[in-house]
Amino acid sequence: MNRKRILFITQAAVIAAIYVVLTLFINAFNLANGAIQVRISEALCILPIFTPAAIPGLFLGCFLSNIFMGNPIWDILFGSLATLIGAVGTYYLRKTKFLFTLPPVIANGLIIPFVLKYAYGLTDAFWFLIVTVAIGEVICVCVLGMILKAGLWPVRKHIFRNDDMA
């Protein structure tokens, strides 16, 4: 296996691990699931602007988090799919100034309310679930994610190396 592939797998694994740790931490405060959720790990959804390895890393991190928290199968599948769609969208919009933050907000805002209604049986109005999930995503991705981007930007070439140099 060449060095570039090993680096890609390592970056994806580290991102997945950080996502899991942050999700399990915020779950202790009952903020990782439900109508009102502020899953701080979603701030990592800006990472595809730095490396494509973030795409599988975010998907795997969300998938594992949902399993570890004992979420219903529909949340495990569709919640992880929403994160994957958001990560891919972020990657494709990575050269924009702010638009790259919107795919996770939109994907989660449209998919997760269905999960909350049908997997968890929440009786809240569908529009209410869209609004609350989207607000949580805006807080995590657009606000915390932009703070994370600002902190990582100066050191991005050191942290997110993608060359074959040692």
Helix content: 55-70%
Number of helices: 6
Secondary-structure element order, as H and E? HHHHHH
Largest sheet: none
Q: pLDDT below 50 for ≥5 consecutive residues: which ranges?
A: none
Q: How far from one another are the termini?
A: 15 Å
In quaternary terms, these chains amount to: single chain
CATH architecture descriptor text: Orthogonal Bundle
Query: How many strand segments?
Result: 0
Q: What is the beta-strand fraction?
A: under 5%
Count the domains: 1
**Global outline:** globular
Structural class: mainly alpha
What value does the average pLDDT take?
95
Radius of gyration: 16 Å
Under CATH, the topology is which?
Answer: Arp2/3 complex 21 kDa subunit ARPC3
The CATH class assignment is Mainly Alpha
Description of the molecule:
This protein has a single domain, classed as Arp2/3 complex 21 kDa subunit ARPC3, CATH 1.10.1760. Helices cover 65% and strands 0% of the residues. The protein has helices spanning 3-27, 54-68, 73-92, 102-118, 126-152, 156-159. The model has no long low-confidence stretch (mean pLDDT 95).
